[in-house]
Amino acid sequence: MKVASIDIGTNTLLLLIADVKDGKIIPLHNSQIIARLGKNVEASGLIQKEAFDKVLNALIEFKKISEKFGVEKIFAIGTSALRDAKNRDDFLNFIKEKTGIEIKVISGEEEAKLTYLGAVSGLDEKFLNQKISVIDIGGGSTEVILGSGFEIKKFISLNIGTVRITEKFLKHSPPLDEEINNAKFYIQNEFEKVKNFEFEGSTLVGVAATVTTIASYSLKLETYNGERVNGYVMGIETIEEIYKTFRNLSVAEIRKIPQISKGREDVIFAGVLILLEFMRKFNFNSIIASDRGVRYGVIFNLLQTNFL
User: Fold this and answer.
1) Cα separation, 82 vs 89, whole angstroms
2) What is the DSSP string of 86-113?
3) Half-sphere exposure for 223 (CA within 13 Å, toward CB)
4) Would the pLDDT of 119 be above 90?
């Protein structure tokens, strides 16, 4: 059975088309479109008209691709920006009317669960008997999940993300020291909610665009290659070097880096900042990049519950 899974995030829309056979997910196609759904949601509480149109166009494109692959079902998930927006229902009705796609807005806890399942589904089998920590740095929120194999022990959704931190604190390009320090203080306060997680002895896995982008940057890939990125290990020294490099670049200079997707140049530094602060606070020396996440977790969860 061919299915499509769409992750409608604060910054990016991700499409996975997969063939589900004998309980296995066989990826056929992946796409991403940066639509910045969450632009100014932090300040105004509203999804902007521009974002309505960008997401609509992205979903029309995704639907066309799905039809070419002969997809039987489309599952669409909305996350942080849609959880926060006061005009969420207007947006959902608009998309349903224009495309026929029904978006399910999930809680932070559901997002954490699906993120974990997606990430673990792409790991080498040797990790499945180990303690695993997953971090998903999104545009509006960051999910942290602790588990073992496919079993989740603890999870939390934090109100920090690349778009949220950038819009709230990083007003200059490059950002001022004071802005970075204020962002760090805010991030560290959110991390206090995670202090009862027992990370010791766990393997850290990072999903979503911040981690996959800097993995691609570290690998010096001319074009993004999910197979090479998935499973790539970066030491904290690598993250620190990337932080130092991006810290002193303007948005215009970051835009010229081939591994930075258009539309991500102004928020990638905030993502690196969140990641580095997390690794330092909880004593992680390395991180494994995962090219999977919510969109894989959606399908994997449906398989586990015998829905597919």
Assistant:
1) 9
2) TTHHHHHHHHHHHH-PPEEE--HHHHHH
3) 0
4) yes
Place of tokens 């959902």: 92
Q: What contacts 246, CB < 8 A, 6 or more positions away? A: 254, 268, 269, 272
Number of neighbouring beta carbons within 10 Å of residue 131: 16
Domain boundary among 48, 79, 107: 107
> What per-residue confidence (pLDDT) applies to 308?
63
**Residue 274 forms part of a structural domain:** yes
Cβ 3 vs Cβ 18: under 8 Å = yes
Is 90 exceeded by the pLDDT of residue 272?
Answer: yes
Residue 49 domain flag: yes
* Cβ(295)–Cβ(138) below 8 Å: no
Whole-structure pTM value: 0.91
Q: How far apart are CA 45 and CA 81, in angstroms?
A: 9
Per the structure block, which two tokens stand in for 300?
């994997």
pLDDT tens column, 198-229: 999 999 999 999 999 999 999 999 999 999 99
| Residue-wise pLDDT tens digits, 5-35 | 999 999 999 999 999 988 889 999 999 999 9
The first and second tokens of residue 13, run together, are 């829309």
Q: What is the CATH number of the domain that holds 183?
A: 3.30.420.150
Residue-level pLDDT at 128: 79
Q: Which of 55, 72, 107 is the last residue of a domain?
A: 107
Please determine, for residue 36, whether its predicted confidence score (pLDDT) is greater than 90.
yes
What does each C-alpha distance from 266 to 151, 163, 263, 278 come to in angstroms?
36, 9, 7, 21
Helix-helix angle 209-219:236-247, to 10 degrees: 90
Q: Tokens 């004998």 belong to which residue?
A: 22
